# Entry
Amino acid sequence: MQPAQTGPQRGKPALFKTALDKDTGTRFFAREGVDPLTHAFEKKITVHAGFSGSPVPNTARNHIMENLLSRARQQPSAVYIHVPFCETHCLYCGFYNRAYGRKESAGFTDTLLREIDLWQAHPAVTQRPVHAVYIGGGTPTALEAHDLKRLLKTIKSGFPLANDCEITVEGRIHNFSQAKIDACLAAGANRFSIGVQTFHTDLRRSMRRVADRDRIIEFLGELKADGWAVAVIDLIYGFPGQTMEMWRRDIDDFLSLDLDGMDLYQLNLFPSSPLARAIKKGTFPAAAGLPFQAELFAEGVKIMEQARYRRLTVGHWGRTTRERNIYNHLMKGPSECLAYGPGAGGCLKGHYYFVESDLDRWRTAVDMNQKPLTTLIAPSPMVELDKTIAAGFDLGRINLRRLDAAFSIPIEAVLAPLTEQWRRAGLIETDGDWLEPTLAGQFWQVNLAQLMIDYLHRNITEEQMT
# Structure
């Protein structure tokens, strides 16, 4: 999400080493003489690559934020709206915030619309188009139909949306009624992202998901038949007890529905999730290990390629040209994001910011006509390059020579020892100026992206930067 640096300047020596101070460790390099798909690295080192920076002191936060808001956005941009409620806490989720009751809907939406209004006069909001809107959570579709409709109408009227803006409502099948679907469509939503995770009823129940396989297939079939909006789902691999056959059946169930697209996600065990705590206590079986997760990933790629789906990113597939996956890809790269709702995160000119996640404190601040920010992160000097690399690995291709020209840094030459070792290890291939991860490299792409970024931070000299 990061463009050029603004705000407080930090000295280069803190981040860039001299030529004599290069890292001589081996953490950047993959194992050789092993199956690179399953054993190239010991573990995944991050969930999202390329995020870095320094916290801004609270005393300077509001001043810097006002400065950022006073200037128009320059990069491709998104709006993110966070709805923190869920009617149940899925076992694997590390982001659960608050249980939902119908009485919450109107009051929450009232406050959210007031929060949106707080920034509406600023150039960073009013100038330049917004290319994607994502209403996520939590479970946005837990809100009542009337409130979903007025939220979407506010978004449509209050932001300079591009003519082809992707407007996504994230949801789950439970309690997503036809009335709510109709309200979203009437107010301008053009994409639904449904968190299925798995069709397998017993596995779903073990993860505290409500709908069974038959209900999921019925619901998604009806959503597809409506035809008014793009319909995509998520599937997760690596659940405790999930077998290869169960995974194949999940993908086959998806393919049978002719939906517009799908994300294949690796299970991330967040320490705060009930699943992680239960596994640690020994009251729940362990999740799949990385080698088996890698095999599940490879099988998913094979099935989707055989079905001739278009691969939009390493983990996202589209059946038709209707599915574009704009928001998710923008958030991997040097883009900007206006964020609203308790727990939301955004980015302006390379600065990350986060909205208060506590619902009561969030509401109190908005009632006082204050944007409830809790954190502002000033970007590193290489933030745009970092996010460009992360976005390239997400797409499955990077042109290092073009990066040399774009950033006036000898990136290809500096990276040569690293990329040559990764090539020997079976993680990347080259095609002319293009560097492309192999199937194994695609599974490890977050490692490759973050390690490439870290390697450049350690090995680019001040002289090369100038």
